[in-house]
């Protein structure tokens, strides 16, 4: 069966068959899945819950836990479903009639978050992904009062319950037995790509041990290793191990330059990060940049685009572009900013698209490789020009930034030149 839906195209996702996302002893097909299961990796792959998700897709339905991707695509934005689609899929996956709900170990991609250990407090991040955020929430209960994402789990775009920190808990670590199960899965499956995220991967000791296992068993020779990093640390021992893989892609998370970077990603020393970014582009790895497009990063988009095009491209002209538009948490969704800031964002988008248009057609990769970013920015601009402002959500944007500025000794006005409160 191949139903059409209001998107006008097939919403089939291969992640339930080919992808395993594992963090804090929680398993799911991908990062965007709204109902991860507190199960071991094998128990998850054999679970009736996963079978139900597969059956929904086979029937042409949208599983309830996949609404985030569906919502993003309705907005014309790139979804996790579309990003994962290209990783290690086989000809079999193109034939819906051959898909089964039965337990399968034909995995192609493994993404893991063994710990939330991190040295940053990024404004768009969550406790399960940053030990610094967790500590901040424990020390400042006022944040829990004003931030509705922690009130009723995943109702009205709130966070799922597993992302709500327990009192006095700071760091999450994956159970060693579950890490052992993941190692066994690597032995018995056809995983071709392993992605390490965090927290900050270069700080997480469990990753160093995990890489040792892969290398000692020879799986590094046929595995594409991806690492998402905030570029704050260049751990020579970590990167020596990374260099032993047959294919490596380092994804540098950049949401601004200068004061904007330090405001959004609290803990950033921009001069140090910039120095590390330059060093990473000189290493023998594939390099990508990951842009989290929130209302804050969009306010500094032109300078970030200039940095990428004028300073990174000359050093590494095959840089890949990854971008992800923030829909949740709601207070960072671009539609929920004051009208005056929407005008500023539109101007930043226009400047960025103009800068990107000047990348030569014969560059490597060609300018078309940045089409995803251009398309994403174009969609955001169109929606900003037509969206009806919800003042309650604008107030939420103001209140959250005001409280974080107070706690972190920062100033929205000093960074963006606009008196927000």
Estimated structural class: alpha/beta
Number of strands: 10
Principal-axes geometry comes out as globular
Spans of at least 5 consecutive residues with low confidence: 150-162
The helix-strand sequence is HEEHHHHEEHHHEHEHEHEHEHHEHHHH
Separation of the first and last Cα atoms: 53 Å
Average pLDDT score: 88
Based on CA atoms alone, the radius of gyration comes out at 21 Å
Helix content: 40-55%
Taken as a percent bin, the fraction of beta residues is 5-15%
Helix segment count? 18
Describe the sheet with the most strands. 8 strands, mixed
Order of strands, widest sheet: 2-1-3-5-6-7-9-10
Task: List the keywords.
421 residues; eight-stranded mixed β-sheet; alpha/beta; two-stranded antiparallel sheet; 18 helices
């Amino acid at each position: 069966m191949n139903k059409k839906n209001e998107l006008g195209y097939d919403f089939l996702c291969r992640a339930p068959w080919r992808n395993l996302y594992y963090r804090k002893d929680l398993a799911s097909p991908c990062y965007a899945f709204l109902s991860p299961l507190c199960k071991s990796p094998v128990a998850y792959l054999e679970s009736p819950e996963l079978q139900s998700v597969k059956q929904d897709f086979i029937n042409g339905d949208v599983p309830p836990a996949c609404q985030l991707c569906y919502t993003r695509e309705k907005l014309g934005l790139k979804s996790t479903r579309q990003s994962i689609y290209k990783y290690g899929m086989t000809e079999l996956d193109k034939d819906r009639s051959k898909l089964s709900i039965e337990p399968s170990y034909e995995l192609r991609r493994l993404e893991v978050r063994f710990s939330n250990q991190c040295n940053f407090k990024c404004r768009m991040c969550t406790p399960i992904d940053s030990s610094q955020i967790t500590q901040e929430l424990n020390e400042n209960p006022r944040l829990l009062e004003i931030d509705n994402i922690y009130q009723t789990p995943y109702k009205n775009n709130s966070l799922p319950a597993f992302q709500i920190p327990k009192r006095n808990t700071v760091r999450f670590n994956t159970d060693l037995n579950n890490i052992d199960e993941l190692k066994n899965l690597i032995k018995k499956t056809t995983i071709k790509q392993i992605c390490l995220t965090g927290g900050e991967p270069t700080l997480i000791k469990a990753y160093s041990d995990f890489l040792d296992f892969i290398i000692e068993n020879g799986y590094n020779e046929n595995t594409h290793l991806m690492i998402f990093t905030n570029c704050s640390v260049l751990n020579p021992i970590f990167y020596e191990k990374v260099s032993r893989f047959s294919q490596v892609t380092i994804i540098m998370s950049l949401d601004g330059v200068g004061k904007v970077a330090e405001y959004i990603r609290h803990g950033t020393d921009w001069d140090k990060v910039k120095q590390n970014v330059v060093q990473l582009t000189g290493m023998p790895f594939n390099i990508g940049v990951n842009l989290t497009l929130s209302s804050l990063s969009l306010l500094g988009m032109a300078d970030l685009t200039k940095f990428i095009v004028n300073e990174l491209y000359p050093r590494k002209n095959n840089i890949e572009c990854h971008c992800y538009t923030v829909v949740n948490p709601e207070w960072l969704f671009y539609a929920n900013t004051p009208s005056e800031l929407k005008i500023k964002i539109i101007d930043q988008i226009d400047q960025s698209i103009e800068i990107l248009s000047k990348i030569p057609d014969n560059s490597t990769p060609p300018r078309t490789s940045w089409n995803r970013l251009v398309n994403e920015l174009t969609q955001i601009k169109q929606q900003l020009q037509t969206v009806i402002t919800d003042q309650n959500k604008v107030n939420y944007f103001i209140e959250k930034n005001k409280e974080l500025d107070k706690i972190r000794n920062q100033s929205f006005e000093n960074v963006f030149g606009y008196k927000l409160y």
